[in-house]
Amino acid sequence: MMLGLYAAATRLAAPALRSMLRSRAARGKEVPSRLREREGFTALPRPAGRLIWVHAASVGETMSVLPVLRALAAHGPVLLTTGTVTSAKLAEERLPPGVRHQFVPLDVPAWVKRFLDHWRPDAAVFVESEIWPNLLRGCDARGIKRVLLNGRISARSTANWRHVPDLARRLLGGFAAIHAQSAADAANFRALGASRVLEWGNLKFFAAPLPADAEALATLRAQIPGPVWLAASTHLGEEDLIATAHAALVANYPDLVTIIAPRHPERGAEVAELCANAPRRSLGQMPRPGHVYLADTLGELGLFFRLAPFAFIGNSLLGFGGHNIIEPALLARLVLAGPHLENFTEAAHRLTEAAALVRVKDATGLADAVRTWLAAPEAAYEAGQRAAACFADAALLPARLTGLILDNAA
């Protein structure tokens, strides 16, 4: 009943969704030349033979699933769908041969049908929390086995799903397998009726260390002779706090460079204005001692993690669950974060146990933490080594997950 109502509502919403897509394209939130992909159209032919379809919502999910995509591509063609402009740019740069990229259609029945009729995948893999009823029903109607990879579901979402238990059982119970990020996620999935739930560890623990251009790294290091620290994946509201922390720190460290890498690089001009017109990487400008520097480019976070001895990870000060604290850890960097790391509870636990994660509550606490670790470079280095060691046990996970997917594509 509820699925039928949802399908009818999304069918009626199609004209409004089409207008929304055009509006998003005008604001740079969609790729105008590829807008029809969001309605299930494609200019790409379906490759011959078995095809595995993997859907990852955005950049973070795409990064985490790259090792699995590489392993799958060794066995045949793979289709990756994503839903954001930044993830499409990442796909252009990082996808291995044999993996095609297309934007995922919005969850309108006719658009989903067009997409599935063209691609006819032999297995569908959804990453983390991508639960789109029409897409899932379309797979079920065609006998396409579906797998949820690195699945996560919060306690709040679980409570909401409990209000519609039949719907939860139908959508979640329809997965041939759910690989959960953590024991807590696994328990939540089982409570909602999922049948085969696997606890093999978090795929993000294995993600390859972010790359960096050696020449660019050397050039930037030459421009930063003094102390430096990084605030990565920041959001609106956090940059103000980081700028306040920087202002407090330059009294002790007049040559300090605070690097801010906003989660959405297109916000570079806005963030630069907040930070006294800070120089911007996207404009080819170089850092200046004593000032904030804007790392407002895509795909260079590995460069900036290597520049700084430790990194604050954003989306964690203002209550939004945090971003990937594993990325700096894999590069042997001490991690700083706010109180909200709900999206990375297991990783946070590991890092805390290793004394490689420092939690702060506000701009004052952030400034105090940065001051402490700038004054103790050897201790920061040792904490970074402990951070890297926290995730040394996940090397076999991509191969194991690849086997799971291929078993369900037979």
Task: Describe what you observe in this structure.
This protein is α/β, with parallel strands linked by helices and 410 residues long. It folds into two domains: 24-204 and 395-407, Rossmann fold (3-Layer(aba) Sandwich), CATH 3.40.50.11720; 214-389, Rossmann fold (3-Layer(aba) Sandwich), CATH 3.40.50. The chain has helices at 2-12, 14-26, 59-73, 85-94, 109-119, 133-141, 155-161, 165-172, 183-191, 214-223, 238-249, 268-274, 301-307, 326-330, 345-353, 363-374, 377-389, 397-407; strands at 52-55, 78-82, 99-103, 123-127, 145-151, 177-180, 197-198, 228-234, 257-262, 292-294, 310-313, 334-337, 357-359. Helix 4 (85-94) links the parallel strand 2 and strand 3. Helix 3 runs parallel beside helix 4 and helix 10 (214-223) packs across helix 13 (301-307). The chain is globular and about 65 Å long. It starts with a helix and ends with a helix. The relative contact order is 0.10. It is an enzyme of class 2 (transferase). It catalyses: lipid IVA (E. coli) + CMP-3-deoxy-beta-D-manno-octulosonate = alpha-Kdo-(2->6)-lipid IVA (E. coli) + CMP + H(+). It is found in: Cell membrane. This is 3-deoxy-D-manno-octulosonic acid transferase.
Largest beta sheet, briefly? 7 strands, parallel
Supply the helix-strand structural class: alpha/beta
Low-confidence stretches: none
Shape: globular
Rounded Rg: 22 Å
- Highest CATH level, the class of the largest domain: Alpha Beta
CATH architectural arrangement of the largest domain: 3-Layer(aba) Sandwich
Helix count equals: 18
Strand content: 5-15%
- End-to-end Cα distance: 32 Å
- Report the mean per-residue pLDDT as an integer: 95
The named CATH superfamily of the largest domain: 3-Deoxy-D-manno-octulosonic-acid transferase, N-terminal domain
How many domains in all?
Answer: 2
What is the share of helical residues? 40-55%
Q: Count the E strands.
A: 13
